[in-house]
Amino acid sequence: MIDSEDLARRFLSTLEARDWDAWAALLAEDVVYEMPQTRERVTGRAAYLAFNQTYPGEWHLSPKVVIGNSQRAVAWFGFRLDDESGGGQAFIEIGPDGLITRVTDFWPEPYDPPARPVPVERW
């Protein structure tokens, strides 16, 4: 049985540590990442990795509450981006192979996304 809470914690901790190899190893090749507030979608492990590696600013994440079952996890986390701080939520879906297939992030307020050097679909 998949320990989704542990997987979600490792997802956040490897992301915070910028341990890109360990973080990418948690993701399915065709993972989908969405942010409803900015209507952005990133498809595929390589694009999601590049998205995070090139995200502007000095950002940090710290988990507050993580819960889950065998197919999903949700993490409430604190964030700091440069001088701004707040909370966000990540809803994580897990495939039968134990890899993350989808991540949907919710941030405190809708905002216009920054310019990015990676392909991002807007809806």
Description of the structure:
By secondary structure, the protein is of the alpha+beta class. It has a single domain (about 5-105), classed as Nuclear Transport Factor 2, Chain: A (Roll). About 20% of the residues lie in helices and about 45% in strands. The chain is built from three helices and seven strands. A seven-stranded mixed sheet has the order 3-4-5-6-1-2-7, covered by helices on one side. The chain is globular and about 40 Å long. The chain starts with a helix and ends with a strand. The model has no long low-confidence stretch (mean pLDDT about 90). It comes from Nocardioides bigeumensis. This is Nuclear transport factor 2 family protein.
CATH T-level topology: Nuclear Transport Factor 2, Chain: A
- Form type: globular
The strand line-up of the biggest sheet is: 3-4-5-6-1-2-7
Alpha-carbon distance between the termini?
35 Å
- Catalogue the unreliable spans: none
Number of distinct beta strands: 7
Task: Give the SSE string.
Answer: HHEEHEEEEE
Helix content: 10-25%
Structural class of the secondary structure composition?
Answer: alpha+beta
CATH architecture: Roll
How many domains, as an integer? 1
Query: Averaged pLDDT, please?
Result: 92
Largest sheet: 7 strands, mixed
Which radius of gyration do the C-alpha atoms yield? 14 Å
Q: How many H/I helical runs? A: 3
Q: What portion of residues belong to β-strands?
A: 35-45%
Q: Output the CATH class name.
A: Alpha Beta
